[in-house]
Amino acid sequence: MPHFTRPPMHPVVAEVTARITARSAELRADYIRRMDAARDSGTGRAKLSCANWAHAFAGQTIADKLTAMDGSKPNVGIVTAYNDMLSAHQPFERFPAVIREAVRTVGATAQVAGGTPAMCDGVTQGRPGMELSLFSRDAIAMSVGVALTHDAFDAAMMLGVCDKIVPGLFMGALAFGHLPVVFAPAGPMPSGIPNAEKARVRALYAQNQVDRQTLLESEIGSYHSPGTCTFYGTANSNQMMMELGGLHMPSTAFVHPETGLRDALTAATAKRAVELARSGECRMADVVSEKSVVNMIVALLATGGSTNHAIHLVAMARMAGVLIDWTDMDQLSSATPLLARVYPNGSADVNAFQAAGGVAFVARELAGAGILHSDVTTIMGEGIEAYFQEPSMVDGELVWRDGVAESLDRDILRPASDPFDVEGGLRLVKGDLGRAVIKVSAVKPENRIVEAPAEVYETQEDVLADFKAGKLDRDVIVVLRFQGPRANGMPELHSLSPALSVLQDKGFKVALVTDGRMSGASGKTPAAIHVSPEALAGGPLAHVRTGDVIRLDADAGVLSTVGGVDLASRPGVERAAAHSEGASWGYGRELFAAFRHVVGTAEEGASVCFLPVPGAARHTDTPPDRNLVDRAVDA
What we know:
alpha/beta, 8-stranded mixed β-sheet, 4-stranded parallel β-sheet, 23 helices, about 35% helix
């Protein structure tokens, strides 16, 4: 273990953590009480009848049946999000065999307890199916519940990488937080064409300057093999958070799938699950705490991670009885240095990031600056120090060594003493249009303040049609409403990015304001997203009209109309309900009608998994320790 003297915590990080702990006290205590009761009820296999246990192992090998009959050997439940349409998840096809063989060597068994849906946002971008993407997270959480409810497991392994999938696995696994739970990633694909070239071709296509075949060839050059897409979007942000949240083996996030090192890490992770099952240590309920949640937020901010986690992290933390909000994230961002420049926040990809020092370097720098809580429980034991190490293969054996002490490329990765920016990549903006988040790590300072007339839309198709017709060639703030969770499932709107980038490159002041989401791949154009409350719930966006002047000031944290507009005096848009209902069928969307009616707000995690806390107040901007669990659901 590397030598490390733990410094005092940064005062802002300490203050925010204390506020989260106080706000969460009652719910957190209830969660731990329930997990303690589940642990104290005994191992699942001891509670199963002989017929139950026989059913559980009827399909296994004779050797595994004999091990299971012993009654004292751990059984690891595998929950996999494998499919071979997602390049990032295709490697999981072989993981169960690697895991089963690894645990057999230490006298245990492993079974695939269940699978989860795993849709690819890269395929559904700009398509109706994207309206299921956010809801798929909660469906995945429920699928984990179905898989592990057999109560036949002493530990669990989660196999997932992308977008909503890791948050869903995380949420579902926390319902079984009395068990040790480990996450095993698959790793990124090798680098393809440079990201700048990919962005250039997309911009040309948006302007009809290259044909579809040229665009397709460029995209295939980017997404070309098994493994995670190599830009720093939601998928790779997931991996950073699982790492610094203490649920991975150290520095496993960005190791390529088709390598002996990846298989060795998967086997080591499986054996670690067995060790934890035998020791009774490091339950997921203990690993995921107020401090580890703060660490995950800090990891996201320090690396310019995906804005999707402004929603996911709230829901993920809530499953462990921890209550966080956008004010917490904004204040942590003010204290977190930006250490990484990875596309779309720079030109490098995650492979270059890993080569420059990767997660181990980030962990050491943040902990050394007192930005990261060091006194946490992880699957490696007590303390964050294990995550300063990196794995390698030496003579066919997996060994661990200290990560690099200095960045090997300061254009990609910098120390906390000399960051790219003294603040993190996410900010809260608010005003008479509501509360929203904006990712500024990829937005140049001169583009962070936009004051311009609004052009109001209700579909992204209409935005793109006006762009192609040249109607947006001016200073403009595009307001795209009725894209929230209750309206249509809150789709990502990444298909707008090339068009908005073209307008900005022409010299216009341009921004997007929406109650929808943007992709983790979105970058240089300012976008106030996740506006809450959403238009369909009566939020201010429903009252905005084309021509209203709007000011988006990321530096001052402002999102408001200009000129004394009295939004409250205007009638709402009458077609809101019709808009929602008209887009509620086809592509499986009708199956999620109930979700749209009961989903919580964006700042509450946009989830259907939680009941309101009795007596909790509705969300207000003050005081900062407001309780966000009680959500308004109109009849």
